[in-house]
């Protein structure tokens, strides 16, 4: 697997299998980078949430991709970025009645940005 960052850098990730959990169908699957970027990706058990994962970065921050149950302006939150101090930025996306796609970004102070093309 390979992860590509916004700056176009590419980091290959390698699976770390543990005894008793050789696949991502029965337990979390953990992947590590070996290129010095010190990334760790956890693919969460598909039984609980089929498309959820957490990427841990070396500076103590993490990116979570999962349905949290939270909403912004009525749209479900699908991704959060948390820094090492616990500050969170949430992302939500949805389509309104006029078929316009809205992407909302919300910070800890509940300030919201609506990015609509």
Features:
117 residues; mainly beta; 2 domains; eleven-stranded antiparallel beta sheet; 11 strands
Can you give a write-up of this model?
By secondary structure, this protein is an all-beta fold. The chain folds into 2 domains: 1-57, no CATH class; 67-117, no CATH class. The chain has strands spanning 2-4, 10-16, 29-33, 40-43, 53-56, 62-65, 71-72, 75-82, 88-95, 101-106, 112-115. The model has no long low-confidence stretch (mean pLDDT 85).
Concise account of the structure shown:
Helices cover 0% and strands 47% of the residues. The protein has strands at 2-4, 10-16, 29-33, 40-43, 53-56, 62-65, 71-72, 75-82, 88-95, 101-106, 112-115.
* Classification by helices and strands: mainly beta
Number of domains: 2
The assembly state of the depicted protein chains is single chain
Number of helices: 0
Mean pLDDT: 85
Largest sheet: 11 strands, antiparallel
Gap from first CA to last CA: 31 Å
- Described by the principal axes of the CA atoms, the overall outline is elongated
Give the percentage of residues in beta strands: over 45%
Task: Detail the topology: elements first, then pairings.
Layout lengths: L1 E3 L5 E7 L12 E5 L6 E4 L9 E4 L5 E4 L5 E2 L2 E8 L5 E8 L5 E6 L5 E4 L2
């Amino acid at each position: 697997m390979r992860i590509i960052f916004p700056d176009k850098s590419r980091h290959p990730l390698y699976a770390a299998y543990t005894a008793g959990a050789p696949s991502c169908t029965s337990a979390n699957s953990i992947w590590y980078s070996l290129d010095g970027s010190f990334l760790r990706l956890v693919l969460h058990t598909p039984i609980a949430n089929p498309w959820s994962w957490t990427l841990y970065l070396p500076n103590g921050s993490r990116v979570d991709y999962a349905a949290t149950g939270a909403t912004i302006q009525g749209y479900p939150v699908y991704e959060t970025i948390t820094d090492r101090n616990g500050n969170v930025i949430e992302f939500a996306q949805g389509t309104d009645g006029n078929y316009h796609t809205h992407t909302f970004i919300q910070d800890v102070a509940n300030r919201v940005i609506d990015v609509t093309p």
